[in-house]
Amino acid sequence: MTAIKVENLVKSYTTYKRGSGFKETVKSFFKREKVDINAVDGVSFEIEKGSICGILGPNGAGKSTAIKMLCGALYPTSGSIDVMGFSPARDRLKYVQKIGAVFGQRSQLIWDIPPVDSFAMNKAIYGIPDEDYKKRLDEMTELFDVGEVIHKPTRVLSLGERMKCEFIMSMLHEPEIVFLDEPTIGLDVIAKNKIREVVIEMNRKGTTFILTTHDLEDVEQLAHNVIIINHGKKVFDDTLSSLKNTLGSKKIFTLTLSQPIRPTLGITAVSLRVFKYLKIINKRTS
In the chain, how many domains are there? Predict the structure, then answer.
C-alpha cells in the first residue's frame, strides 16, 4: 500500500544577483538582476507504507526542501503530494496529527525547562489521553534509557541526550509517518546506534520513516529503498542493493605504456596483455 505519492513536485525561489564592491552595492538599489532557482525540479516518487526510505544527495540538492513540503511546512510551486489521502499544505491541521518530524539542526524542546514539561505541552496540543500518554512516555524513555535525563533542564543536556528527547517528543502522539532530517548529525557512535535501534523497533510496529542523511551507515542499516536527488532532480529511485550494484566497488585503471603499440599487433592480443597486467595489480592490492 502506498503511503506517499509525489508527482512532478517543483519548488522555485526568486533571488537576486549582486556584484561586490561599493559601486555594485549602490547600483543594486536601483536595478537588480533577478534569478529563478528550482530547489526541487519535477520530482516524482512513491513510498510504501511501513517502509524506511532514505533520501540522499549533496548539500543544496533539494532534500530538505522536499522534506519540508512533505511535512506541510512549505507550499510547492507546482505538482502534487498525497500522503495517506492528505495534501500536506492544504490539510495541515488534520495532517500534522498523523506525522512526526525530527530535524537534527532544529529543536522542538523548550531550552529552559526539562524535556518532560515539553512532552506535557505536546500532550495538550495533540490531545493525547492520560493513559496513552503515560504508556508511550514510559515505553520511549525505557527504549532510549533516559528516565533521569528527561527531568533535567534541556540546556544542560548533551547533544545525544537532547536528540533522544527530540525523538520522544515526535513519537508521543504515535504518528503513522515520521520524517527524519539528519537525526544523527554530530552524535557519537553509541547515541547513533541507540537511535537506529529505536527506528527499527518502531518500524516493526508499522511506522513509516523517511530519512535524509549524509551518514551512509544510517542508510545501510535502516533504509529499504533509496532516492537520490541532485540539483533538484531525482537521479535514482530503487532498493539499496540495486544502488550498490549500480555504484558498487569499481576500479578505474589508467595505463601508461612504455612504448607505442605496434599497428601489426591485433586488438585481441593487446586486450590479453592488459588483462594479464590487471590480474597482477589485483593480486598485489588484495
Answer: 1
